[in-house]
Design brief:
With 566 residues, the chain is of the alpha/beta class. It is 30% helix and 15% strand. A hairpin with a 4-residue loop joins strand 7 and strand 8. The longest helix has 20 residues. It comes from Prunus mume (Japanese apricot). InterPro entries: Orn/Lys/Arg_deCO2ase_major_dom, Orn_Lys_Arg_decarboxylase-I, Prn/Lys/Arg_de-COase_C, Prn/Lys/Arg_de-COase_C_sf, PyrdxlP-dep_Trfase, PyrdxlP-dep_Trfase_major. Pfam families: OKR_DC_1, OKR_DC_1_C.
Length: 566
């Protein structure tokens, strides 16, 4: 039996440019650049300015007539000519006889059901790896230029654009630092991508049990002392950790002390990987916590699409320092990413970078102020709690743009409160959990929606008061969900082992053969190779009963579970 040791916290609640000799004067095919591009106005914080609802998006099939009207925009000279956006625009405007993929042929054969929804322009710009558009895995032109400009903005030595989301970035980071049999220190509440990365790499997990707040039923980050203890335990076994992975900020915005963690690890020559999926905006305002790159991380993977404004599934991987081999990162990404990357996704990363570059220190000012006002209003509502730094005193900061609201005092679960807010007020949140709902605020958050949220919560409280109900709070117990984990097989061995299906009643004590987690947030409750415990089973059955979607389970109803043959 392989026993992966763990420990828990005491309960409490220089930009390096690779030009390949071509510099920035990339030009595979001659084309003109426009002098300016469109930049979204941050106008939507003002409720009095109505948006034009007569844009006529997608009303025709003609590329010349399909003009998408964008309301409340302005021409920005400072944001002009993002290199990849420029190249994509010029390529799409060519009067060329096209005999290349994709099959819709620049929209000429686009499915009408979709063009009626989004128009023709996405198809017109959905182009393959044409010479003038560069190559994602061997960039020399506009992709290289765009990635270098991103590296400059985010403070990294090198930046890679990702079309497989932060998932492929986390996988590449772990594969590039951990060889089969080497130890990866990581929090047990890491994202599912970290688990799949260990399957791919053969890394052996050394779990840290995260700080846990039982009143909120929320896990926090990891502390420098926890990381140090984990490193020393590995060293006592005569080994050295290959890497340390930290999730910061968490889904709820809880930030770990990355400065101290990186100093601690670097003193031992251990690289630090930061899953910064929820923190691409950090560092772009004095009131925000610093980013992972600015706190010394070797690798940081950001979901640019989450709080910044690129398209869903587009992310960035940033590297700094000399502890990680950049060539291994590149090889891993080439292994993991599609050989037919979407240029719409890539261009959206370039555009999102350009948008932030326009006013990097002030662009989030209005959004931050609106977030502060929103939290202040909600705190005044009787029976409602707002997650703040006092709930996690061992951590230096919480992302000010993340709003987590608790309904414990009303006797409502997060799932019940979410159903009321959605059905009665059409309010859509980011994350629902047993005790709380989390709302993500961003550059597009408008005052009208905030007012609807506040009004909806007030109505929810009033309805709850008029219809008293017994407490339905999910008790957190005396220990965190992951505190009593026993690992019999490492994730890779469990993934490839023989398996069988057993009923839920007979699964207790068996070795889990599948990765099961409520989504969102995508934090696995059961990992292949771990012994199935009553606590984990009870938790999964409870959140499923309350409406959570269970991801990874071959039986979504959880009447049975796949286990390993031992």
């Amino acid at each position: 039996m392989v026993s992966v040791s763990m420990f828990s916290a005491s309960p409490s609640s220089l930009n390096l440019s690779f030009h390949f000799g071509l510099g920035n004067n990339w030009n595979f095919r001659t084309f003109a650049r426009p002098s300016a591009c469109l930049s979204q106005e941050s106008r939507n914080l003002e409720p009095s300015k109505k948006q034009d609802k007569t844009s006529g998006i997608g009303k025709t099939r003609s590329a010349t007539k399909d003009q998408i009207v964008i309301s409340n925009v302005r021409i920005s000279q400072r944001e002009s000519s993002p290199p990849l956006v420029t190249a994509l625009k010029a390529s799409a405007e060519q009067n060329a006889a096209t005999f290349h993929f994709p099959g819709h042929n620049r929209g000429r054969a686009a499915p009408s059901s979709l063009t009626q929804l989004i128009g023709l322009k996405p198809f017109l710009h959905d182009l393959p790896e044409l010479p003038e558009l560069d190559n994602l895995f061997s960039p020399r032109g506009p992709i290289l230029d765009a990635q270098q400009q991103a590296a400059s903005l985010f403070g990294s030595l090198e930046t890679w654009f990702l079309v497989g989301g932060t998932t492929c970035g986390i996988q590449a980071a772990i594969m590039a630092t951990c060889s089969p049999g080497e130890i990866l220190i990581l929090p047990r509440n890491s994202h599912i991508s970290a688990i799949s990365a260990m399957v791919l790499s053969g890394a052996v997990p050394k779990y840290i049990i995260p700080d846990y707040n039982f009143d909120w039923d929320i896990a926090g980050g990891v502390t420098p002392s926890q990381v140090e203890t984990a490193i020393k335990e590995v060293e006592k076994e005569g080994q050295k950790p290959a890497a340390v992975l930290v999730t910061s900020p968490t889904y709820h915005g809880i930030c770990s002390n990355l400065s101290e963690i990186t100093q601690l690890c670097h003193s031992r020559g251990i690289p630090v990987i930061v899953d910064e999926a929820h923190g691409a905006h950090l560092g772009f305002h004095p009131q925000m916590p610093n980013s992972a790159m600015h706190q010394g991380a070797d690798l940081a993977v950001q979901s640019t699409h989450k709080v910044l404004c690129s398209l869903t599934q587009s992310s960035m991987l940033h590297m700094s320092g000399s502890l990680v081999d950049r060539e291994k990162i590149s090889r891993c990404l080439q292994t993991l990413q599609s050989t037919s990357p979407s240029y719409l996704l890539l261009a959206s990363l370039d555009a999102a970078r350009a948008q932030i570059s326009e006013n990097p220190e002030t662009i989030f000012g209005k959004a931050l102020q609106l977030a502060i006002e929103t939290k202040s209003m909600i705190r005044k509502i009787s029976g409602i709690s707002v997650l703040d730094a006092q709930s996690f005193p061992n951590f230096p900061a919480i992302d000010p743009l993340r709003l987590t609201i608790g309904f414990q005092r009303l006797g409502l679960s997060g799932y019940e409160a979410d159903e009321i807010l959605y059905e009665d007020h059409e309010i859509i949140c980011e994350l629902v959990e047993t005790q709380s709902i989390t709302f993500a605020m961003n550059l597009g958050t408008c005052r009208e929606h905030v007012q609807r949220l506040v009004s909806g919560i007030k109505h929810l409280v009033a309805a709850s008061a008029s219809t008293p109900a017994a407490k339905r709070k999910v008790e957190g117990g005396n220990s965190a969900l992951f505190a009593d984990i026993e690992t019999s097989l490492i994730p890779r061995d469990a993934f490839f082992s023989g398996k069988r299906r057993v009923s839920i009643e007979k699964s207790l004590g068996e070795v889990c053969g599948e990765l099961i987690c409520p989504y969102p947030p995508g934090i696995p409750v059961m990992v292949p190779g771990e012994t199935i415990t009553k606590k984990a089973l009870d938790y999964l059955l409870d959140v499923r009963r309350k409406g959570a979607v269970i991801s990874g389970a071959s039986d979504p109803h959880l009447s049975s579970i796949v286990v390993c043959n031992m």
